[in-house]
Design brief:
Helix content: 25-40%
Number of strands: 11
Order of helices and strands: HEEEEHEEEEEEEH
Strand order of the largest sheet: 1-2-4-8-7
Strand content: 25-35%
Length: 199
């Protein structure tokens, strides 16, 4: 019986170590920063992050002194995703059963560095903070083609460009076809008039 209890205890300890290691890696892949009276933890929900793969902004806010989660920020805090010169507003929503945790859906389409910009209020405190991906913070977005095997699929942006080009070529061919039909009809009319005059 003692041997069985020892095995159960060792199994429980092993599971606890694995969970601890996993949670530590999640924290390391996010940036933690004190913003006035509050602590912000910001990153991407799925890391490593890949292009054209659904992801989300992951935000957690607590009171620094007490560690108490801050709720209701989906109503008072605005978030924007920034990549180069492009900006997109994000819709924050509270995570069910996780007080002080928020998500905002995002599908990154280009590899590189992303910035999350927060403005608005946390309780009575105004906020204007930018969190940028990179070493020591949270992961940059990586090109998904690096993982594709055995055949590399075209990126969604490249595929959309190809479809648009094909549609444009088809529209141009249709216009030329209509012009050709018009010229043919005109030729038949001119021929018929000439024949009538001869008779």
């Amino acid at each position: 019986m003692k041997k069985r209890n020892r095995l159960i205890w060792l199994a429980a300890l092993s599971i606890a170590c694995v969970i601890s290691a996993l949670s530590a890696s999640v924290v390391l892949a996010h940036e933690q920063r004190t913003v006035g009276k509050y602590t912000f933890v910001v990153g991407l929900l799925n890391e490593p992050a890949y292009t054209d793969f659904p992801n989300a902004l992951d935000l957690r806010v607590t009171e620094t002194q007490s560690g108490k989660p801050v709720e209701g920020l989906e109503k008072t805090l605005q978030a924007n995703a920034i990549f180069g010169a492009s900006t997109m507003p994000l819709t924050l929503r509270a995570r069910f059963g996780q007080p002080g945790a928020y998500l905002a859906d995002l599908v990154p389409t280009k590899p590189g560095s992303y910035i999350f910009h927060f403005t608005g209020n946390v309780a009575d405190q105004a906020v204007d903070e930018k969190f940028e991906s990179g070493p020591g913070r949270f992961d940059d977005v990586t090109d998904l083609t690096a993982l594709q095997f055995p055949q590399k699929a075209p990126a969604a942006l490249e595929l959309a460009t190809q479809v648009q080009a094909a549609q444009s070529a088809a529209a141009t061919a249709q216009i030329f076809g209509m012009i050709g039909i018009g010229v043919g009809v005109l030729g038949v009319i001119v021929g018929a008039v000439a024949l009538m005059r001869r008779q």
